[in-house]
Design a protein that fits this description.
Shape: globular
Oligomer: single chain
Strand content: 15-25%
CATH superfamily: Cytidine Deaminase, domain 2
CATH topology: Cytidine Deaminase, domain 2
Radius of gyration: 14 Å
Largest sheet: 5 strands, mixed
Number of strands: 5
Length: 155
């Protein structure tokens, strides 16, 4: 995959991120596109609380193992299970071939842990794809970045 292709698909994921608002709050508006042989085969975005995040929303649109699919996600897949299952574990379970991420999640329970899990599963991880553009959109919605909201009590 060329750098231009990766940026094009990440822009599509960023577009999906915008579709998450405002219903996804207090979760960040994350977008995901799944690509097979140069074509988008599924799109997802963070659903309202207690419903799927972007990655499982996209993954649910495809059946079977996905070794020939690359996931483009605007924010690092979550490593932990809280209201919903870990997105990193979902990507691993479906055996995606590669994961492209715009930015690492600054949330205290993530900070690279999701990407580490994915790499340890033998899946290729590429980071910082369109990072500045995605940061400009997502930054205010992320806990732990300057200008972001603080998480709700009990989060």
């Amino acid at each position: 995959m060329t750098d231009d292709d990766a940026r094009r698909f990440m822009r599509e994921a960023l577009g999906a991120s915008r579709e998450a608002l405002p219903a996804c709050r207090p979760n960040p508006p994350v977008g995901c596109v799944l690509v097979r042989r140069g074509a988008i085969v599924a799109r997802g975005f963070t659903q309202p609380p207690y419903q799927p995040h972007a990655e499982p929303h996209a993954l649910a649109q495809l059946a079977g193992s996905l070794e020939d699919v690359s996931a483009f996600v605007t924010l690092e897949p979550c490593a932990f299970h809280q209201r919903t299952p870990s997105c990193a574990r979902e990507l691993i379970a479906r055996r995606v071939g590669a994961v492209y991420v715009a930015m690492i999640d600054p949330h205290l329970r993530n900070r690279g842990r999701g990407l580490e899990m994915i790499r340890e599963a033998g899946i290729t991880v590429v980071t910082d794809v369109l990072a500045e553009e995605v940061q400009a959109f997502l930054g205010p919605y992320l806990w732990g970045t300057p200008g972001s909201e603080e998480p709700p009590v009990g989060w």
